[in-house]
Write a structure and sequence with these properties.
By secondary structure, this protein is mainly β. The protein has a single domain (about 1-60, about 75-105), classed as Sandwich (Immunoglobulin-like), CATH 2.60.40.1180. It is built from no helices and eight strands. The protein has strands spanning about 1-5, 10-20, 25-30, 35-40, 50-60, 80-85, 90-95, 95-105. The strands form two sheets. The protein has a five-stranded antiparallel β-sheet with strand order 2-3-8-5-6, with no helix packed on it. The protein starts with a strand and ends in a 7-residue tail after the last strand.
Length: about 110
């Protein structure tokens, strides 16, 4: 990943994996900063990607936020659709967040 402003970022942590059963590429990204981080993502070697991906985002405005009996969903995962333009795309990872991107791959026909 390359950060859009090219400054060193110490609050963004990521891992990538491949689900052999579904063929999905899975990116897990934690933004430990209070601010969103605009990031360029390059999936080297990925091909036959769909035009969209599923993003599951767990975030809160304040890192100290907790669920309670009065606000049981204050911090809860939200599912979004993320538009892709291929293996290279731009995404803003929200502050204080965990984002799981599931990018399905389309099997090419022989």
């Amino acid at each position: 990943m390359i950060y859009a402003d090219q400054d060193p970022v110490k609050a963004l942590y990521a891992s990538a994996s491949h689900d052999d059963h579904t063929g999905d590429v899975i990116l897990k990204v934690v933004n430990a900063s209070a601010e969103g981080i605009d990031t360029a993502v390059h999936l080297k070697g990925a091909s036959n990607l769909p035009r969209s991906a599923q993003a599951i985002v767990l975030c809160s405005e304040n890192a100290a936020d907790e669920n309670s009996l009065h606000a049981p969903d204050k911090v809860s995962p939200k599912t979004q659709t993320l538009s892709l333009g291929g293996p290279d795309f731009q995404h803003v990872f929200p502050g204080n967040s965990l984002t799981v991107l599931r990018i399905g791959t389309q099997k090419s026909t022989p």
